[in-house]
Amino acid sequence: MVKLDKFTFAPQILTVKAGTTVTWRNEDNIPHTVASAARVFKSKVLNTGDSFSFTFTEPGSYEYFCSLHPHMTGKIVVDPANQAAK
Predict the structure, then answer these.
(1) Coil, helix or strand for 33?
(2) By C-alpha distance, which of 18, 3, 11 is closest to 81?
(3) CA–CA distance, 4 with 55 (Å, rounded to integer)
(4) Burial label, 75 (beta-carbon count in 10 A; 0-12, 13-18, 19+)
(5) How far apart are CA 74 and CA 61, in angstroms?
(6) Strand partners, 4
(7) Predicted model pTM
(8) Cα(82)–Cα(66) distance, rounded to whole angstroms?
(9) What is the spatial distance between Cα 13 and Cα 55, in angstroms, rounded to a whole number?
(10) Which of 4, 40, 57, 65 is most open to solvent, judged by the fewest CB atoms within 10 Å of its CB?
């Protein structure tokens, strides 16, 4: 889970396996959004306590931001699901 609080995404960078559903939850006292820089996903406006989920099926790096507060940025790194642990 990624928390939105104090105008930040925490953690700012999250690494997951392909097929993982990531949930963002707004724990701040003001509205925020979660929007992919490449327009892969976008939430509605999330009020305090609201959440948004997206399932990452393709490996890659997905940068995102809050469209209401563009200085808020984060990244999801998606590793292949069948990659052997090192």
Answers:
(1) coil
(2) 18
(3) 18
(4) middle
(5) 10
(6) 9, 26
(7) 0.92
(8) 31
(9) 16
(10) 57
Tokens found for residue 43: 């939430």
Cβ(53)–Cβ(31) under 8 Å? no
| pLDDT in single tens digits along all 86 residues of the chain | 999 999 999 999 999 999 999 999 999 999 999 999 999 999 999 999 999 999 999 999 999 999 999 999 999 999 997 654 44
Residues contacting 82, CB < 8 A, separation 6+: none
Rounded-to-integer distance, Cα 50 and Cα 45, Å = 9
Give CA–CA dist 62/22, Å, rounded: 12
Please give the Cα distance from 42 to 85 (Å, whole number).
Answer: 31
